Amino acid sequence: MNKEKHDLIIIGGGPAGIAAAISANKAGIKDILIIERDNILGGILNQCIHNGFGLHRFKEELTGPEYAGRYVELLKETKVKVLSNTMVTSLNAKKEITAINSKGVNHLLGKAIILAMGCRERSRGAISIPGDRVAGVITAGAAQRYCNIDGYLVGKKVVILGSGDIGLITARRLTLEGAKVLAVVEICPYSNGLNRNIVQCLNDFDIPLYLSHTVSNIKANKNHTRVEEVIISKVDENKNIIPNTEISFKCDTLLLSVGLIPENELSIKAGIILDPRTKGALVSNNLETSVEGIFACGNVLQVHDLVDNVSLEGERAGISAANYIKEGNKKSKGIKLEVGENLLYLCPQIIKPSSVVDSTPIFFRVKKPLDNCKINIIINNEIVSSINKIKLIPSEMQSVNIRKDMLKGAKNIKIEVIKK
Amino acid sequence: MKTDLVIIGAGIIGVSLAFELSKYNIKVILVDKENDIAMQTTKANSGIVHGGYDPKPNTLMAKMNVEGNRIIKSLHKKLNFNYKETGALIIGSTDEEKEIINKLYKQGLENKVPGLSLLKNKKEVHQVEPNLNKEISYALYSQTTGIISPWELALALAYTAVSNGVKFINNCKVEKIEKNKDKFILSTTKGEIEAKYIFNAAGLYSDDIYNMVLDNPSDGFKITPIKGEYYLLDKFLGSLVNKVIFQTPSSLGKGVLVSPTVHGNLLVGPNASFDTSKDDVSTTIDGLKYVVSASKKSVDNINFFTSNIRNFSGNRATIKGVDDFILEESKIVPHFYNFAGIKSPGLTSGPAIGKYSISLLKKSGLSLTKKENFIYHKLPTFFSHLNDNEIESLIKKNKKYGNIICRCELVSEGEIVDSIHEVIPATTIDGVKRRTNAGMGRCQGSFCGPRVFEILKNELHLDIDSIYQDKGNSNVVVSYTKGNK
Prior knowledge:
heterodimer, A: alpha/beta, FAD/NAD(P)-binding domain, Immunoglobulin-like, 3 domains, 7-stranded mixed β-sheet, about 20% helix, B: alpha+beta, D-Amino Acid Oxidase, Chain A, domain 2, Arc Repressor Mutant, subunit A, 4-stranded mixed β-sheet, 22 strands, globular
């Protein structure tokens, strides 16, 4: 069995993992290993062949593979080692990793570890869609892989449940491949995708969006083999189906784009505490998890809207891990952030004032669309900062910066969004 | 094709019959209308090895259940299917329920079920099973009840049968049976088969098959399907209970159970719905709602919303007014044997019914001699059950074992390729799933599905339009993309 020790081991070679490796390297860590399960780096970006990546990071519009390519080029300038085609099967709090590849079983030990495993899609079962047992019900990401990596079309007449970005992008992609997308169906009264995707992927192709609707039945063809009909129904404000509001679509495919879940099975094995709101690790402002020396970034920490933000978060995790390797653990007190009104979550969940250099960003999403509102930072029950916003929507991740000077004498910190 | 005996239907009963017959010098063909074995009731049920306290004493059902339980335990080591003797509780709290539980206990003793005892107060019950609803104050404890992967048991029995000379023909639907003097001629979608004996193990369709040899359908029986819907929950709830938790049975069946599965998940269900047809395996809003609400009586804090990974349903083959299995030679058509009305505990009873069929044949005067070189075809152990040294040595033999394809269930390419070249090969994505567990996990094949698709395509040299999710013609993709033509 192969045994290795490294200063820093990064699990996952997608945008978060690569960015973390580059920044840790820049911060002076030489012995870095990225473990990637696929045969190439880049993660999910490799199947995202549409453009729109990198507007913030590189000030230009790149495709997913191009965006990944930029980072891979930067990585090549370093001596970071990459172990590809390798699956990590276990991780513990002593920072011991077991990983399997075609050479055998590898036991790896890191001084620090960065979790960058990304997320997975929710499937039919996760939302209990009733109906027949059929082929042709598939997650949008799997359809995207079949289409963009393998070169197969999963259906000709398609209904998409969920207006998340993957669903919208896949709607356009399948249309360009000759499929007819009959409808995108969204259970919320608002879209869960970025506005630009609604315009560019649905409106431009005359694909109707049904808000406040969900799939109430899936019917098989007469041989009980594949989808023949998808029935959608209107839902009330509690998302319960309203009887006698059915609309039927004759189609051969139902694509699901109904949410992403951070893939934290390894984190759980290591005893890392998760935040039930983000379903990612509970972290402090340096992105360290509840287990000392293990950091998290990217979609395994919180599901992001833009890859540019993933890269930035990866860079921060890389710097934190480098500091930890060089200086060891500096025990300092943390303040748990309180999730205020209208917020779905806050990430990080803990601030350690002594570790804040100038300021630290706090990310969040709102629960529902809000017009004319303000984001308040409340410290020791006093509003220390208030930012006006014309519109906030759940599909866009927001952030506020907490400056070091605000934290002087801070006992409790709360962030909220309220109507003006 | 000519043979001594044809078994119609490759569900748990058909493969059990084939397994037992393959120990003897008799030519057997096993046919199924689907593309794989275990494609109907066998793959969609609770996966329980019942103790044997339910069936009425002195019935065939009671005998087969108790004996089947014992045989499965002994076959487990020989065939290596996943099975665990967890024990079960049949729970209750009202006086009426206690009375029924007492009756089951007595019935169990009469059926010679080993390891039965009564838990007579809340403390005793919750000591055994701490997460039960706090109202539960009484239970029958059945030590020998177990959990099993139904399709793995079926695969192991079928592989063994085939390894010992039984011929399995899939996609072989029997359309007509002609009865000549001393033989049957079966017209099937795969041609004619001539046989001296027929074993009818066609499950939900066993009435249709029997009618093919009857002049008067009223001499036969009628199968009524009863559908049951389930929730399969994520592994983080897999140890919420450590035994099979039954509610007190009623006229509708054994009720909604909460049980760990042999793969480490939690299973909740089934309901019992007559609003179904033999081919209807849909789930319904009402059916699922019922399962959720009924389960609260057993365990009241299951969060279905965050833990569900799949809903499914299956049909039990029942015969109205008959509370026993039909296991006999037809009184009207000699050499035609019915194994029908196999509702619960059919899975448990299968291997015992196999043995029983031999005694039926012998009774009718057929002399059977045992084969000398009978072999057990062991299932491979899942990767996830091996230790690092065992995995390492597999990878050294073949590096495909080092390529993990299913991340949720930790299944390697090597295992998937092996399953595609088994004596009864996996030819579909779900065929691979039943043999290796790839796609059984929390992402339900979203990740490994496309990868298994490619492996099937390459190993079997299939066109993309003949790679199916499960049943024949359940296409996964419909065409190449524009740039890939």
